[in-house]
Amino acid sequence: MSHKKLRINGHSHLLPYPEEIPQFMKDKGIFWVDKDRKFMLQKDWSRPVTDSSFFLHEKLEWMERNKVDHAVVLNLSQLYGNGLRLEEMKQALKFQNDFNARVQQDHPDKFTTGFVVHPGFVRGALWEIERCVEVLGMDLLCLPTHYMDTIGTWRCIFDEENEPIFELASKYNLAVEIHPYDGEKFIKLQNTNWRFHLIWMLAQCADAYHFLTLNGYADKYPGMRVCFAHGGQLAQINLGRRIQGFDGRPDLFKGKTHPRKSVGHPNIFFDTLVHDTNSLKMVIENQGSKQVVMGLDDPYPLGEMESDNQSSYPGKILDLALERDIINATEYDQIWDDNVVRWLYGDDEKRKEAFRKRILGEK
After folding, report:
1. Beta strands in 74-164 (DSSP E)
2. Which of the residues 101, 128, 246, 285 has the least number of beta carbons within 10 Å of its own beta carbon?
3. What is the pLDDT of residues 24-33, one digit of tens each?
4. What region, left, alpha or beta, does residue 276 occupy, with left being phi > 0 and alpha being psi -120 to 50 degrees?
């Protein structure tokens, strides 16, 4: 069935206004925004707010200006809850999830929002998934590539201990976003020249993809559709090495699934935020264009934003890919529209139709 082609951004972020953040978040040093909206802050950490579209009303204006019909808003990476005491973590994550749910409820035509759980506390994570799906009506589970467990050990999200989370995500037919953060807390290198955002975040995604595929979770939990942020960029160029390693040292992979089996899997997606067309070409050649979704990572400076220095604008990399015959016009439309919708709702045609009507304001 043909339909109006939409421009759906599958990777966006939103900050609460300073007055929306509970006082306990600042008192505990968990997360807050200064009253002038110039910085986001945590205890011993701050980052400049580099664009006004970090905030709701300014985001809506930005979307209108750049002809973005709808945005998938992920959770804030600063609110994964790693290292917090249990009660503080639960309150912080509940605030994030309630905030995102309210954004979706107030602007259903413009936003689909994600919710986050902490895998270190599996039973509590299951309760929160149930609450966010059953009570708040949310369809997107946001998970970090790595997390700190209850004894302070850092683990990959696709650790077998987390299988109850994936089982419930599959039962609810959830889209799942895998996003990196906190690398400087467990990779023992000095945090200089943005190395954790520019290098190690991509390695974190590759590590998570490694274990998703080795554990065969795309087939074991068929209702769960996983998307990797930033194109899973290092996972793409590392594919051959992983295959050779699996074949060359089978003793290290007993009971594991061959990496080839997950390549181009219909339940594994990657966004376009890879910054150059050669990298995007590799994602498409490895995984197939149908597994690629538009991701602007706005409004962060590593996102696809308006930039005179880079002569950039939201959507530029896909426009260049079309211009350079990396994709055709049909694939271009699918990456902006159909693929994002399929990641969110799989093969459920009723939910997909309801989603489109929600965006278009139809009943």
Report:
1. 111-116, 140-144, 146-148, 154-156
2. 285
3. 999 999 999 9
4. beta
For strand 225-228 and strand 175-179, is the pairing parallel, antiparallel, or unpaired?
A: parallel
Which residues share a beta bridge with 51?
none
Q: Are 304 and 312 in contact (CB under 8 A)?
A: yes
pTM for this prediction: 0.96
The separation between CA 54 and the C-alpha centre of its own chain, rounded to angstroms, equals: 16
HSE, CB side, 13 Å, CA atoms: give it for residue 151: 1
Contact 115, 142 (CB under 8 A): yes
The number of beta carbons lying within 10 Å of the beta carbon of residue 130 is 12
Q: Exposure pattern of 225-252 as b/e (b: 16+ CB <10 Å)?
A: bbbbbbbbbbbbebbeebeeebeeeeee
Pairing of strands 45-48, 39-42: antiparallel
User: In Å, how far are 166, 231, 262, 289 from 216, measured between CA atoms?
Assistant: 12, 20, 8, 22
Q: What is the DSSP secondary-structure string of 168-211?
A: HHHHTT-EEEEE---GGGTS-S---TTHIIIIIHHHHHHHHHHH
Residues in the chain: 363
Q: Is 16 exposed, middle or buried (0-12, 13-18, 19+ CB in 10 A)?
A: buried
Per-residue pLDDT reduced to its tens digit, 107-138: 999 999 999 999 999 999 999 999 999 999 99
- Residue 334 CA to residue 136 CA, distance in Å, equals 29
Instruction: Report strand pairing: 146-148 vs 154-156.
Output: antiparallel
DSSP letter, residue 257: P
